[in-house]
Specification:
single chain; about 220 residues; alpha/beta; Rossmann fold; 2 domains; four-stranded parallel β-sheet; 12 helices; about 15% strand; globular
Length: about 220
């Protein structure tokens, strides 16, 4: 039997989303939510770096004790707030985060829009995108209230209308953006509803994360 994969994300909701993706591929996994809700997760992300590192290292060691040799970090802003490459080196685990995907995406576009849960996520994504392609032109927005609505179970059609996501996508398109990157792992929840309302291509990095996990 293959080793289970640790799924780590900001809250129980996005951790469950990550688990669902792996289970749909027949991969065994164990969930490790970091916080109980988005607000608690945001506070964790802006806490001192040493505190974050100790907390995450303890979780990684716990996952190792349960046989997890690989880690699927299904949270963009968490990936930006924690130094996972150094933790991977210390633990010897293969840790895959959404940020790994963004470098290759940046080289495919001249103009790219992206949305994230909070400024931590925006900063981390921008750093990776521009590091890979300094000529890339970007527009972005932080949408933490949308994350709260998803956590509360708001239906995706209502959510798309209430938070004016169609208008946001229309603005990105009018500004010349070639695609919209979903820079929060909660956001594929409304991808289908938004795709019906815009011609702007919408990118979900989850598929490429799975490819990295299997590499």
């Amino acid at each position: 039997m293959s080793h289970p994969i640790a799924v780590m994300a900001g809250t129980p909701v996005d951790t469950h989303m990550g688990v669902s993706i792996l289970k749909s591929r027949g991969l065994p996994c164990i969930p490790f939510p970091i916080s109980m809700n988005p607000q608690e997760q945001t506070l964790f992300q802006v806490s001192p770096a040493g505190d974050k590192r100790r907390h995450m290292l303890a979780l990684l060691r716990q996952s190792q004790s349960l046989g997890c040799q690989k880690v699927f970090v299904y949270c963009n802003s968490l990936s930006a707030a924690v130094d996972f490459p150094s933790l991977a080196q210390e633990t010897g685990q293969r840790i895959v985060t959404p940020l790994e995907v963004y470098g290759s995406l940046a080289r495919r576009y001249r103009k790219l829009a992206f949305i994230a849960a909070n400024a931590q996520g925006l900063s981390g994504i921008e750093r990776v995108l521009l590091g890979a392609n300094p000529q890339l032109s970007t527009l972005s927005a932080a949408l933490l209230p949308v994350v709260f609505a998803i956590e509360d179970g708001m239906e995706q059609e209502e959510l798309t209308e209430r938070f004016h996501l169609t208008e946001l996508a229309r603005w990105f398109s009018a500004c010349g953006m070639e695609a919209l990157l979903l820079g929060c792992t909660h956001f594929p929840y409304f991808k289908e509803a938004l795709s019906r309302r815009t011609e702007l291509p919408i990118i979900d990095p989850a598929a490429e994360m799975l490819d990295l996990l299997n590499a």
